[in-house]
Protein 1
Amino acid sequence: MVIFYMVFAFIVLIIFNSLTNAFCIKMELSQKKQLKVYRVINMIMVALLVCSYLRVLNVTV
């Protein structure tokens, strides 16, 4: 279960980073602002993935 979820989380993060890249290019953000946007989005996504993993873990136990 852990390996499956790690692969799932990796794929989700890749997809969201590619969407963030497209957003930054479209909005023509500076490099400094891009780093802030990436940092915030990645932190939020990691928090959501951890919460969802804990929820799945509680259901399966």
Protein 2
Amino acid sequence: MNLKTFPAKPLTADIVLIGAGIMSATLGILLKELDPGLTIAVYERLDAVAAESSDAWNNAGTGHSAFCELNYTPQRPDGSIDISKADKIAEQFELSKQLWASLVQGGQLPDPEAFIHSIPHMSFVWGAENVEYLRKRHAALLGSPLFAGMEFSDDPAQIEKWIPLVMDGRDRSQPVAATRMAIGTDVNFGALTRALFTQLSQQPGVTFELGQEIEDFRHKADGLWRVKVRSRATGKSRKVRTRFVFIGAGGGSLTLLEKSGIPEASGFGGFPVSGQWLKCTRPDVIARHNAKVYGKAAVGSPPMSVPHLDTRQINGRRELLFGPYAGFSTKFLKKGSYADLFRSIELGNIRPLLYAGARNIPLTKYLIGQVLQTPEQRIAALREYYPEARPEDWQLEVAGQRVQVIKKDKKAGGVLEFGTEVVTAADGSIAALLGASPGASTAVSIMLDLVQRCFPEQAASPEWQATFHRLVPSFGQPLAANAALTAAVRAHSAEVLKLA
């Protein structure tokens, strides 16, 4: 789309961003760097920034690099390990670190210790079959420069040095194994999002409004969008005129996308999954664990339910969480309505919803079982990772709400996806981000792709290309095929972001 044509009537803004989460913040910063003259209006329905999925308590805080997440390295029928998705995700997070480092150097982001910290990423398994899987996974990943330096051990004594809580009280006759990447990270995406929006809101031509509900969209013959915005405080509505709309409202994106009326939105549905954490309340226990330890998900469970015993840095405090415990709610947002799921059902997505539902009955049963778990059952799950856990040292915390994407499929009728999906209009004038994990960690990669898709002429220009490479030095170059480039950009990001 062309951002330089002049409409007959004044615009409210060149760009409208819906939702004050990490996705909108990343896109806003990128566009302002690419074209400082752009005007941007941001609208958020809540009275705070990053209050839903981007909030530190509502997500895992893992800088997802596929270092420890076993669901990104499936085993093929012949027993070999497929690392293609792991390579992709690891590369995407390197792009994120490069942009953050550039913004820190440029003064647009604060001291990186406010939002990112080094923490080893580990996988831990038990049982002979799982140990053999982890051994093969480790060997396969070492073939990629993105996983150079990954350690493997099936020695209980070594694993105890790495993660003593996990080994305390464990039967030493049980086969166990672990991998460790020392360069893993913990990211407070809430703090990062707030810092990005602070920077964005201080730039000329940017307006930022909280407590604003998006009621409707109209795409007019002049190519502009009229967005109907209602103040939740006063109830008054107004129409906003813009050339481009980005819907980055987390779980709320689906229903807003449906209101846009674009043909590309037809057939998409949503499957909401809720979550809970166990939070440790004993400082001495918290102090003894220093890693993000991921295990294998239960059969039939969604990827967001992969269990992990997780050291976090949240609002200046060290925390220890275990979970998440999945559940089902018809809400699409943590602070949403129980009617969200039903409101999202339209004629165009009934068939995909029914087919996907029929094919995922075990998942539904799993989620219901999670909802019905007793406190004793939750502690039993924790003890698989921390055998000496005491119930009185842990309290239950509600995590965020995720909406997994359901999309139409010619063969299957409808399929349930566990990633992210960017939906754009044919003319590139509106785009929406649907889905969940790995989400925030790959925001930079997703937004770079979106900018090139929606603004192809500008993105191909020498000016924008130069800015892409200034902000993200490895832009356009596959890291998995270039060990020297991977080492160089990783070392630079680590130095600027103060990572070990």
Protein 3
Amino acid sequence: MGFVTLLPLGVAAYFEEWDMLVPMGLVPLIFVLLGSALLTIPRPPREARLSVAFTAVALIWFTAAVIGSVPFIVGLHMPVTDSIFEAMSGWTDTGLTLLPDVDATPKTLLFWRSFMQWLGGLGIVAFTVALVSRSGLTQRGLYRSEGRSEAFMPSVVGTGIAMWRIYGIITLLSIGLILLSGVPVWDAVNLALTAIATGGFTVHSEGIPYYDSALLEFLLVPVMLAGAMPFKLYYLMYYKRKASFFGDRQAVALLSLALIGIFVLFGDLIFLSGIDAFSAFRQSVFMATAAITSTGFQNTSPFTWPTVTTLYLIMFMLIGGSSGSTAGGMKISRVLLGLEGLVWWFKRIFVSGKAIVPFRHEGRTVQRNIAEVEVSKNMLIIILYFLTVFVGTIAVLHFETPTMFESSNVIFEVVSAFCNNGISTGFVNPEMSIGAKWVFIFVMWFGRLEIMPVLVLFVGLIKGFD
């Protein structure tokens, strides 16, 4: 991490922002010093337990956010809380921002925000696992702890390397596609980094509306969808020369949900908001795609929409993109498994107790005991998602009472942060209380790691005090 975070220094030199060299240079320096200190710890003879891997991943992500906040603290003199919020939003691909003026921010720090999202897209741990010289249970545990279960190569290290190679190629293609809209190269690079990472940071305070370009918005749609697709498909296309988007359940579900979202939003904006057909189509296509792919881009504010339309968008943000992608949310694979589990449960209710009802998943029959465990674990995570949104909303409302925003807007922001989406009604702003800002920091952290690693960390801390 110390090596790769040297790249923004090149941006500082290119734009001659010499005053940014020290604030930005502190990031790789701290990474190197911390990494060197950790290397002095003796390696245990046995592989670490899964709980240790979970705890390590949770600590790695939070530490990265603290280190990533240093340039904002030193270079912009932002408050510590706001700076950690900005860095956590970057690393977790959320896209919510507390920068007072994006346009007045040095280009070095704007690139740092985009670069954090690009690195965080596939995961900090996935990046480092790709650089280690061997694969083992510890690496596999770390890899899975980031919410990643895909393994299309025998070695986790090989999987990590393949994913990053594919990621780089798609990013370059995305830059070329975005340049067709006529935006400057600087803007295209930053938009591509954050779009393929389904992050959502931009280099202007107005965001996407700054460009006032329908062409740019339509060109960003396939990039956002590409980031939310399962990367296993790209591996099959690149290495095996065989793959079909319409042969993958998650890919079909993602495209189907995007089309359903566009259709419903278009109708709502026409009949409930009364806007013209082209504006309604433009907003519905872009916002529905941004919601289901968990990308924080927006070409309008949901605050201006009817409450029912805003709540409808929440459902798509909760679902999120595919497993094995850069997207956040519960993941389409988890939703599909939950639906399969419900259907299996109802089938067993309406037959004889002696009858054996097989559970089929992805065309294969799964043993009953394994199916019950996996379905139960899956439903537990889904329940924890809704519980976290509920608790997070209550906590924010306690810190931000009274507020000009309706409760639906607050729920929208919490879901956006927890599912690492970034679309905002305007509730998240630098004037929020410190307590509310820290709730959002923890919610983004929880969501990026899909809850369990952070819970394991907290349980371990509590047990340690017993």
